[in-house]
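re: the backbone from monday

yeah here it is again, tokenized this time
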């Protein structure tokens, strides 16, 4: 196989893989996948993006030769998911506000005349454990993410409901712009239980695309999860 053929084959794999990722997103399936599969989907998303960005656009000096590879490349570049996504990769996460007594979803209702209403909080971080455990869970935290402290002060608690990794801040903005966190929340949809930030971070830092079995075996009993 020549280098050009190999490159075309790689681009085709990238196109098929990204088509699959788009369908998973469109059908809202990504949020229902088990954490290990969701991490693998995130890594695939990231890898496809890098592959597309690595394909240099033809320079003006070179007349464009529209063979199959070039056509495919320009098609991929025009897709919304392939747009350059600068910035470091981290965790996009979703917090779901819950009633500490019943464990049910309970949105935060503001006191203002506009009646602000927040059932969820979207965030992005490079350090998931520090962000969730040291900042969001800390009632005296005064940094970014005040909404969570307001919810805690109002007697609510929260669960880590959804995580994407690796993901940039732009990915967080795109998800937010799609609206309705409720639709994306596996806890509110009843499709999955709360996540443990320590486990998610440990799985994400493992270079293997799939969960090592040792991590899966040490999952705590769901009954012991935060309430
Ligand atoms: Zn929720």
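seq for it, each position gets an aa:
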């Amino acid at each position: 196989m020549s280098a050009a053929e190999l490159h075309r084959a790689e681009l085709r794999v990238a196109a098929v893989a990204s088509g699959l990722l788009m369908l998973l997103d469109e059908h809202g399936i990504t949020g229902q996948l088990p954490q290990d599969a969701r991490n693998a989907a995130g890594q695939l998303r990231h890898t496809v993006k890098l592959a597309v960005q690595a394909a240099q656009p033809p320079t003006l000096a070179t007349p464009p030769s529209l063979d199959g590879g070039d056509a495919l490349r320009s098609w991929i570049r025009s897709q919304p998911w392939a747009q350059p996504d600068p910035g470091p990769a981290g965790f996009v996460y979703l917090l779901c506000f819950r009633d500490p007594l019943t464990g049910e979803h309970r949105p935060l209702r503001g006191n203002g005349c506009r009646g602000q209403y927040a059932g969820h909080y979207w965030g992005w971080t490079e350090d998931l454990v520090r962000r969730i455990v040291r900042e969001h869970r800390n009632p005296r935290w005064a940094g970014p993410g005040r909404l969570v402290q307001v919810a805690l002060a109002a007697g609510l608690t929260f669960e880590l409901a959804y995580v994407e990794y690796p993901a940039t801040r732009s990915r967080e903005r795109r998800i937010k712009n799609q609206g309705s966190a409720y639709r994306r929340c596996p806890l509110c949809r009843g499709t999955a239980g709360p996540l443990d930030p320590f486990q998610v971070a440990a799985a994400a830092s493992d270079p293997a695309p799939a969960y090592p079995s040792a991590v899966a075996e040490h999952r705590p009993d769901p009954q012991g999860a935060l309430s």
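Residues 96, 105, 120, 161, 185, 187-188 surround zinc ion (CB under 6 Å). Residues 58-64, 210-227 have pLDDT under 50 and may be disordered.
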